[in-house]
């Protein structure tokens, strides 16, 4: 599921977050992590969907399938 992969990529980017960097850097880093999971062939293009579902249980990082 692409939303789950995006969630994981954002989590990795947040884990690497450095003081003084802005949120745009976090999104760029998450795009790089997401692309790496797809062999560098994909980018995440569902940001509007993500904003709607990011707090839903089905895509939360600690949710179990």
Notable features of this structure?
globular; 65 residues; mainly alpha
What does the average pLDDT come to? 75
How big a fraction of the residues is strand? under 5%
Radius of gyration: 12 Å
The gross shape turns out to be globular
**The number of domains:** 1
Number of helices: 3
Secondary structure tally: strands = 0
The arrangement of helices and strands along the chain is HHH
The N- to C-terminal Cα distance equals 12 Å
- State the major sheet: none
The poorly predicted ranges are none
- The quaternary structure here is single chain
Walk me through the structure:
This protein has 65 residues and is mainly α. The protein has one domain. The chain is built from three helices and no strands.
Quick description:
The protein has 65 residues and is an all-alpha fold. The protein has helices spanning 2-15, 23-37, 47-53. The N and C termini lie close together (12 Å).
Any chance you could write out the topology, listing elements then pairs?
Layout: H1 2-15, H2 23-37, H3 47-53
């Amino acid at each position: 599921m692409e939303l789950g992969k995006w969630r994981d990529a954002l989590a990795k980017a947040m884990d690497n977050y450095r003081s003084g960097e802005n949120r745009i850097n976090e999104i760029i880093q998450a795009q790089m992590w997401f692309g790496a999971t797809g062999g560098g062939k994909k980018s995440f293009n569902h940001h509007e969907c993500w904003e709607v579902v990011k707090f839903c249980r089905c895509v939360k990082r600690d949710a179990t399938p």
